[in-house]
C-alpha cells in the first residue's frame, strides 16, 4: 500500500532524512523504532506532506510527494501526531464529529465503535476534551483519526506518558485495526508493545533505516539493539 524510496527531508538548511526506504503492506503493522532524534517523526511528517522532502512516496501506486497534507489525508492516509492535537474547547463527541470523512458517507467506523473500544470516552462524550487525562486524550486522538476512515494510519508515540494498563489497551486497540483492514505504521520507543504487535520492525539511526526485519530477528540482534535502541 505504502512504498517509500530515497526519501530525503529538510528543516531549512538541515538535511534530516537521508534516503529512507521502506514499505507497509495491506493489513500489516510495521513498527518504526529508534532513539529520539533518529528521524522517526520526521519520516511520518514527510509521508504526510508536512515537511520539505524529495524522493518517492507511493500510496497505492500514486506518488504523493509534493501534495498538501489534507489532500494526502483524503486519499486514505491517517496521522496521529505525538502531541495529540485535540480541540480542547470542544466535547469528546464534537472532536469525533470533526474527524468524520463525510457525514453523508458511511465509513467502516462509527461513534458506537469508538465508544465500544474505549468506554471511558462514552462516559465523557459531553465533556470538553481539554480536561481529559493524557490517556483519554490519546484515545480520543486515535478515534478521531479513525473516523476519517483511513486505510493506513501513522501513529507517533501513542503510548508516551501513559500508564501501563492504558499502554496494554492501546496495543489491543491497534491489533483490532487489522481485523478492520487498516494497516498501521507505529512509531515507538517502547520495544515491548512494538515487538508484541508488529509484523515487521524497522530501526532508524541518523536519518536512515539501519535495520529491517521481523521482531524475532531484532530480538536476536544484540548489536542493533545496543547501538541504535538502548539508551
From TrEMBL:
Keywords: Amino-acid transport, ATP-binding, Cell membrane, Membrane, Nucleotide-binding, Transport. GO terms for biological process: L-amino acid transport. It holds the Pfam family ABC_tran. One of its GO terms (molecular function) is ATP binding. Residues 2-231 form the ABC transporter domain. Belongs to the ABC transporter superfamily. This is ABC transporter ATP-binding protein. It comes from Ramlibacter ginsenosidimutans.
Amino acid at each position: 500500500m505504502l512504498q517509500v524510496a530515497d526519501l530525503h527531508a529538510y528543516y531549512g538548511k538541515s538535511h534530516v532524512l537521508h534516503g529512507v526506504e521502506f514499505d507497509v503492506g495491506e493489513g500489516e503493522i510495521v513498527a518504526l523504532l529508534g532513539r529520539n532524534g533518529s528521524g522517526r517523526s520526521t519520516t511520518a511528517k514527510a509521508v504526510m506532506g508536512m515537511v520539505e522532502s524529495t524522493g518517492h512516496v507511493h500510496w497505492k501506486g500514486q506518488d504523493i510527494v509534493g501534495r498538501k497534507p489534507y489532500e494526502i489525508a483524503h486519499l486514505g492516509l491517517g496521522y496521529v501526531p505525538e502531541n495529540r492535537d485535540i480541540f480542547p474547547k470542544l466535547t469528546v463527541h464534537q472532536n469525533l464529529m470533526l474527524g468524520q470523512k463525510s457525514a453523508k458517507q458511511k465509513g467502516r467506523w462509527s461513534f458506537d465503535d469508538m465508544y465500544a473500544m474505549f468506554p471511558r470516552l462514552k462516559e465523557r462524550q459531553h465533556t470538553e476534551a481539554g480536561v481529559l487525562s493524557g490517556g483519554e486524550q490519546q484515545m480520543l486522538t486515535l478515534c478521531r483519526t479513525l473516523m476519517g476512515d483511513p486505510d493506513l494510519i501513522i501513529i507517533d508515540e501513542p503510548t508516551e506518558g501513559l500508564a501501563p494498563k492504558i499502554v496494554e489497551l492501546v496495543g489491543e486497540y491497534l491489533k483490532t485495526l487489522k481485523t478492520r483492514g487498516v494497516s498501521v505504521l507505529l512509531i515507538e520507543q517502547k520495544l515491548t508493545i512494538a515487538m508484541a504487535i508488529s509484523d515487521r520492525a524497522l530501526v532508524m539511526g541518523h536519518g536512515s533505516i539501519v535495520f529491517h526485519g521481523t521482531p524475532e530477528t531484532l530480538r536476536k540482534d544484540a548489536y542493533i539493539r545496543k547501538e541504535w535502541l538502548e539508551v
